[in-house]
Amino acid sequence: MTVNDIKRFLDCRVSDVGAARLPEPFMGLGYVISLCIKLSDSVVDTITDKPSHTYFHHYRSVNRALDDAAQSLGLYLQKYGYDYFPVAASQSVNTDGNPFKGVYSHKQAAVYCKLGFVGLNNLFIHNEFGPKVRLVTVFTDCPVTDNQARVMERSDYRVCGECGKCIAACPAQAITPEGFDAKACSEYMKREFQLIGRGSVCGICMKVCDGKNI
Ligand code: SF4
Ligand code: SF4
Q1: Residue 97 burial by CB count (10 A; 0-12/13-18/19+): exposed, middle or buried?
Q2: Ligand 1 site, residue 175, Cβ cutoff 6 A
Q3: pLDDT band at residue 212, thresholds of 50, 70 and 90?
């Protein structure tokens, strides 16, 4: 089985697929597959200085579509005798004392698969689609690729150059050239956007980032 087989299988259900051989197995599985769905530009345009109800619904719909695609891919792999481990598209599990941490970082997986990089706004920025994407991850023992994972380095952040749009736009001052403050971001959303998605989405730093520095 190859990455192209997976692309054909998922057809229009996802926007891009990547795969890599992991530096270290996860759950005993040595390969990672990253699935990406590009968000609707028109829906992202409804974000102003706050998220919109439409954006929140789209965010949840795309996460559900990603979970469904990951599960279908898992069954496809299983049918050919391989094991699979899907990671939920949007789920915090509060491990290591970090309330924002998931079972595995989708961004890390997508970087491993060479689909893009992580910007100063802490968003995954897809090589072609920019930051307006959502991700899901499937681990497997199926040798889908010869590609060794790409490990992101600090120097990768140079692609953001002098842009700084997300730094200027973030109302929580959660983004700086030195790093991203997940707590400040989360607390701001919970406080200011409680009536839109119960404070779980914002999207301002995604909307302003055009990823042109890629
Ligand atoms: S999601 Fe909103 S609050 Fe969080 S970093 Fe981006 S702009 Fe700032
Ligand atoms: S808005 Fe500019 S600085 Fe921020 S992540 Fe996007 S490209 Fe990088």
Answers
A1: exposed
A2: yes
A3: low
